[in-house]
Every structure is written in C-alpha cells, then in structure tokens.
Design brief:
Layout: H1 16-25, H2 32-38, H3 45-68, H4 71-74, H5 76-79, H6 82-108, H7 110-129, H8 137-165, H9 181-246, H10 256-263, H11 267-271, H12 275-278, H13 321-348, H14 350-375, H15 390-432, H16 435-449, H17 465-531
Helix pairs in contact: 1-9, 3-6, 6-9, 6-14, 7-13, 8-9, 8-15, 9-13, 9-15, 13-16, 14-15, 14-17, 15-16
C-alpha cells in the first residue's frame, strides 16, 4: 500500500546542496542514499568510518604543514619574548581542536540530529492544520548565499596569503591549502545550526503573525459593527425626515394673494374650517407661471431600494471564546514544542558553539596582536603570517567575527520571537474584552512564561547582544595588555643588549689598560737594568 502524501514538505528538502558538500568533506556521517530518497538523516556505519578516516587525514596533513612551515617557529623563542612564543604555539592548534570538536560532536549526535528535523516536520503539519503557513523556500536561498560567501572568504584568504606570503616555488608550499580546512569545516557545521535556528525563528514568527491576524480581524469586525449601528441610526433619522417632508405645507394667510395669482385656487378651501384640514393643501397644479415658463414640480423623494445590498462582515473568531479556545491551545502547544526543539538543538551544538566563540575571541585578539608585532618588524608564528598584510588581516577578521556575530544575533532574535508570543496572545484578550477569554489568555500566558528558550554555550554565557558587548570589551582589554607586555619585553631586551654592549666595551678598555701597565712595568725594569752599574 502506498503511504499517504505528507501535508507539508520536509525542511530537509531545502538542505540538499549543503548536505552533499558536508558529506563530501566529512562534516556529517549520515546515510547519503536515505537522505536522497527519503529526505531524512539516518545513522550510517560506513559514513562514520569515512568521517573518522577524513579526520585522521586532516590531522596528519595539518601537523605536516606545521612541521614544513615551522622554521620560523623554531627561531621564534630565541628572537622574541616567551609570551609571543606561547601564544603562537597554543593558537597554532586551536583551529585543529575546533575542527575535531565539530566532527566528533556530529558523530556522537548523528541519530539525534535526524529526530530534530522530524519533529520540525510534525510541527509544520500542526501549523498547517491551524492555517498557519511557513515558507521554506527562503531557507534554500539563505543556504546558497551562505555557501557562496564561505567560498569567497576562504578562497580570498588562501590565495592572497599563498601568493604574497608563501614561497610557492617549493612543492611543499601546496600544503598551505590544509590551513583553510579547519575554518571551512567549522563554517559548514555552523551553517547547519544557523539555518535550523532561522527555521525555528520563522515558526515563532508565524505563530505571532497568526495571533496578530486574529486581533486585526476582530478589530475590523468591531469597526463593522460600529458602522452598522451608525448606518441604522442614520436610517432612522432619514425616515423621520422623510415623514416630515411628506406632510403638505400649512396655509399661510399672508400668502393669499400669491395663491390667487398663480393658479386661481379657492382660498376658502385652503383655509378650511378646522386645523386638521389645514395640512391637506394640494400642490399647485398650474404648470405655467405668469411669464409663460414652466414651473418645476417638486420631486418626490426617491424611495429606498426594496432589496438593498447588505454589507456583511465575517464573524471574528475572538467573538466566541469557546470556539477560539481550542485554536489558542493548539498554537501554545506548538510553541512549546518549538521551544523544546530549540533546547535540543542548543544541546547538540553546545560544545561546537563554545569552541567557535573561544576560537573567535582568541584569533581576533591574536591577529591584531601579531599585526602590531609585524609593524614592529618582529617575528610571528608561521600560520599567522597573514598578519603581515593589513588587507588580508581585515578579511580574516571579518570572516571570523562574522560567524560569531551572526550566530549570536540570530540566537537573540529567536529568543525574542519566542517571548513575543505572550504579548501577541495578550493583545487577543485585550481586543476581545471578554472575561472568559481573559481567563484563557492568562492561563496560557503562564505556560508560555515557563516555555521560553535561551541559547547558551554550555551554560557559560548566553548568546545575546550583551555577551557580544562583553566580548568586544574583552578583546580590547586583552589586546592592550598584550601590547604592554610586548613593549615591556622589548624594553627589557634592549636594556640587556645595551648592558652587554657596555660590559664588552668596559672589558676591552680594562684589558687595554692592563696591557699598558704591563708594558710600563717592563720598560721600567729594562731601563733600570741598563742604567744600574754592576759591582764585582
């Protein structure tokens, strides 16, 4: 029997290009055939062995790269301060540590990652039943833009550094390509997290938009009711005026001559004998005035249409608290499920995010510090030779900081979108102005308050704009401290060299003085010996 077609397309359908590239370079170990035919991430033993083999090759090539370009590093400790040597040695391997963290975490969590995207698909089906649609086509476009930017940055840094700062006449210089592998793999892994996080944000915003539409619909419905009441009042007033105008004009004795002049009307009949006949004056029947022209007859007020077009507005869902309660409950349950998915995603990428933030903080600070060292004609580690060129340094800093800032900003916006649902829900209660709906909204608001989601790096710090501000201040502070230590070390080194030079000069002067004293003594002895007579 054929399986029923799903109500919505799975989110992983938009990840095809990213998955194939990630599978090729060893970022994800999931089964390729299952993803191609079922759009699902499932465990694969062959993929696990392939990924471990790729990781081992990367480690070997990276160490070979360090050994091949390590001639400058061997002389770094002798020529520079110990601080610069230690920083360079530690930061040389931090990229490799970051890459290994990403790949090993993907190996451990390969089964959980597929469950997350399956839960997102079920959430999309529940949103579809509540007439809350989510557009996934923007996800594929965002992935393509990120991949293009990644290739542009990686190739620009690699080619610019290789041409300007590497001796490409030697065949071992080709190993410089390996220096771009850790950052490239890390970027692909973070694209998975960033796009998945953006998908959650879109679902939060879809729920908020649905609640806002309920508010707008009810406000439109209330405006229609108010307009209907006004039109009813206007109709009553119009009917009153029509009834007054339908009464014949009363006879006025002062205009008796005018009646005689216009039509020869019997004035006595107009006077009548009683007041009840006075209001039954017929309109003037003569059609010609004294000048021979026609007299315009009074037009009868136009009767209202017997079948008027009725302006009917659709009844608002918020006008019936009992009916809308189920819809609000379903939306809040979906909101809770999305929050749980966000927490699960944060758990899967917790260590990779921590390693990325540590890498970004250290690399940003070290790149600026080594740029200062290069301006002072000081030796720097071989893998940071890009700091010798300010233009390449700017590209490296923009690329590294861009990944960190974008993840922090996206996590912050997703958290805000999840918390804004409570505000949109309270708007429904305010605009409806119904006691039963107020009770429903207050009950659901307590649930939403306990279901907020915040993203962190292993609990050390929250990914929000406050953390970004703190990291920026920390980079500035540590950069100043490093430069001060470097200045102190260079001053101490210059003082030692001056002292050694002074000691060498003083020793040479002392040796010359001593030789002069010996020569004087010898001359005195010779002179004394020659001039003293010998007595026998």
């Amino acid at each position: 029997m054929s399986q029923p077609s799903p109500l919505v397309q799975p989110l992983l359908l938009q990840f095809q290009q990213l998955f194939f590239i990630s599978k090729l370079v060893g970022v994800l170990p999931q089964d390729l055939d299952k993803f191609r035919h079922k759009n699902a991430l499932e465990k694969s033993r062959n993929g696990m062995f392939y990924m471990l083999g790729i990781l081992g090759i990367y480690v070997i090539l990276y160490n070979l790269l360090i050994y091949s370009f390590g001639e400058e590093d061997r002389n770094l400790k002798a020529s520079q301060s110990t601080l610069t040597f230690v920083i360079g040695l530690f930061l040389t391997y931090i990229g490799l540590i970051m890459m290994a963290t990403d790949q090993l975490t993907a190996l451990i969590n390969q089964g959980k990652l597929g469950e997350i995207y399956e839960r997102i698909r079920l959430v999309d089906e529940r949103l579809y039943r509540e007439q809350c649609l989510v557009d996934n086509f923007c996800i594929a476009r965002r992935i393509r833009i990120m991949l293009i930017m990644t290739f542009i940055f990686e190739i620009s840094i690699l080619i610019a550094t290789y041409i300007t700062l590497v001796d490409y006449t030697e065949w071992l210089s080709l190993l410089w390509i390996v220096s771009a592998v850790p950052t490239f793999i890390n970027t692909l892994d973070k694209i998975w997290f960033a796009v998945s996080l953006y998908a959650l944000k879109e679902r939060f915003e879809a729920i908020n938009a649905t609640l806002e539409d309920l508010v707008v619909e009810h406000e439109r419905y209330k405006a229609w009711l108010a307009a209907d009441d006004d039109s009813a009042a206007l109709g009553n007033w119009t009917r009153t005026m029509d009834s007054n105008e339908s009464q014949p004009p009363q006879y006025d004795s002062n205009l008796e001559y005018l009646y005689k002049e216009l039509g020869g009307i019997d004035v006595g009949s107009l006077r009548g004998s009683g007041s009840k006949h006075r209001n039954k004056v017929a309109p003037i029947a003569h059609s010609l005035n004294s000048f021979g022209g026609t007299v315009p007859t009074a037009l009868k007020p136009q009767q209202a249409n017997a079948n008027p077009i009725i302006n009917v507005a659709q009844e608002s869902e918020l006008s019936n608290a009992t009916k809308v309660e189920e819809k609000l409950n379903n939306l809040c349950q979906v909101h809770d499920e999305i929050c749980e998915i966000g927490k699960a995603m944060n758990g899967l990428w917790s260590y990779p995010i921590l390693s990325l933030m540590a890498y970004g903080f250290l690399i940003f600070t070290a790149q600026l510090y080594f740029l200062y060292c290069a301006t002072q004609s000081q030796s720097i580690p071989s893998l940071f030779r890009s700091a010798k060129n300010p233009f390449i340094t700017v590209i490296v800093l923009v690329y590294t900081s861009g990944k960190c800032i974008y993840l922090i900003y996206l996590s912050w916006k997703t958290s805000l979108a999840s918390k804004r649902t409570g505000i949109s829900l309270h708007k429904c209660g305010v605009v409806a102005d119904d006691n039963l709906l107020y009770e429903i909204v207050n009950h659901l608001s307590l649930k939403l308050l306990n279901h907020s989601v915040d993203f962190s790096a292993c609990g050390f710090f929250t990914l929000d704009m406050e953390t970004l501000y703190g990291v920026s201040g920390g980079i500035t502070s540590y950069l100043i401290i490093l430069i001060q230590f470097n200045l102190a070390a260079q001053q101490a080194k210059d003082a030692i060299q001056s002292l050694n030079s002074f000691n060498g000069t003083a020793g040479f002067v002392g040796a010359a003085t001593e030789m002069d004293n010996v020569s004087s003594t010898f001359y005195y002895l010779m002179t004394t010996t020659k001039m003293t007579p010998i007595n026998y």
